[in-house]
Amino acid sequence: MSLEISIVIPVYNEEANIQPLVAEVTQVFRGREYEIIVVDDCSADSSWAQLQQLRAENPRLRALRHSLRCGQSTAVWNGVKAARAAVVATLDGDGQNDPADLPALLQALLDANAGANAGASRRVAMVAGWRTQRKDSAVKLLSSRIANGIRRNMLRDGTPDTGCGIKVFYRDVFIGLPYFDHMHRFLPTLVQRTGSTVISVPVKHRPRLRGKSKYGIWNRLWVGIVDLLGVAWLIRRSHRPSVEELA
Ligand SMILES: Nc1nc2c(ncn2[C@@H]2O[C@H](COP(=O)(O)OP(=O)(O)O)[C@@H](O)[C@H]2O)c(=O)[nH]1
Ligand SMILES: [Mg+2]
After folding, report:
1. Is the pLDDT of residue 107 over 60?
2. What's the chain's average pLDDT?
3. For site-directed labelling of 31, which of 2, 201, 231, 242 has its Cα 20 to 30 A away?
4. Does the predicted model carry a pTM greater than 0.85?
5. Is residue 232 part of a domain?
6. Is 158 left (phi over 0), alpha (psi -120 to 50) or beta?
């Protein structure tokens, strides 16, 4: 039986969140063909021990671990590479995204491509979650609003919330993207650069109940500016003519 979906969850020091989140995903996909891939980015807490225990009792759960901390993008990258399904979902590991949104996002992706050939180039390759009611601190909301405004103006990616951790997409399209640290914040732009379309769908957002946020204003702002320039350069340096071949 082939898998319908691989759910990739990057974690760094999320020891109190992994078990409840895996239980939620398991509940949501009960009776379906799926796998959960948690990628531990060399956590300093008991995340890996939790995963060892959970893996022993849940064959649908796979656990990967980095030998050193490399950041969220690399964790997502390695998780997607390891995925066995043609469609992959990502989910933050802190429980702020609601796994109950995943089936609708998956369906939106499949519906958008109904009747299209698997290899057709112009298709909806990604459905991005859109946190219409974010449950974050005022400081985070404000800094995110400013950063989003600048990004939207520079990249014109037509995506209201690129930073949302919940996304569903075709694995082969993702694997064809250029890899770099922090790429996870630019996935809609990078996917559009391949000629594919991205649609946004409203999703729930929940407050972080356990553990601490790994991002503050400063570690997001400065790298964000460098990344934005880098991504703008990538867009400028790409061409996508249609290619014809003599019969
Ligand atoms: N693998 C990995 N995941 C990370 C890292 N930093 C954050 N994450 C994960 O990315 C997700 C979002 O991070 P979080 O700290 O909740 O960011 P916030 O929601 O913007 O405050 C969570 O699943 C984190 O565990 C990291 O350095 N490596
Ligand atoms: Mg969070």
Report:
1. yes
2. 93
3. 201
4. yes
5. yes
6. left
Question: What is the arithmetic mean of pLDDT over 61-89?
Answer: 98
Substitution site in 214, 218, 220, 223 for ligand 1 pocket (most atoms within 8 Å of beta carbon) = 214
Number of domain units in the chain: 1
Six-digit token string for 80? 């997607």
What digits encode the pLDDT tens for the residues 165-217? 999 999 999 999 999 999 999 999 999 999 999 999 999 999 999 998 888 77
Looking from the CA of residue 13, the nearest atom of ligand 1 is 25
Q: Report how far residue 80's alpha carbon sits from residue 82's, in angstroms, rounded to the nearest whole number.
A: 5
Residue tagged 């759960």 (tokens): 61
Residues 90-114: what's their mean pLDDT?
A: 96
Distance 216 CA to ligand 2 centre (A): 11
Between CA 216 and CA 33 the distance in angstroms is: 37
User: Would the CB of 63 count as within 6 Å of ligand 1?
Assistant: no
Flag whether pLDDT at 231 surpasses 80.
Answer: yes
- What's the start-to-end Cα distance of the chain, in Å? 39
244 in a domain, yes or no?
A: no
Domain of 208, in residue numbers: 5-236
The pick from 94, 140, 162, 209 for probing ligand 1's pocket by mutation, whose C-beta has the most ligand atoms within 8 angstroms, reads 94
Residue 80 domain flag: yes
Residue 28 Cα to ligand 1 midpoint, Å, equals 22
Q: What is the CATH number of the domain that holds 27?
A: 3.90.550.10
Residue 245 lies in a domain: no
Read off the pLDDT of residues 27-64 as tens digits, 9 standing for 90 and up.
Answer: 999 999 999 999 999 999 999 999 999 999 999 999 99
At 20, give phi and psi (nearest 5°): -60, -35
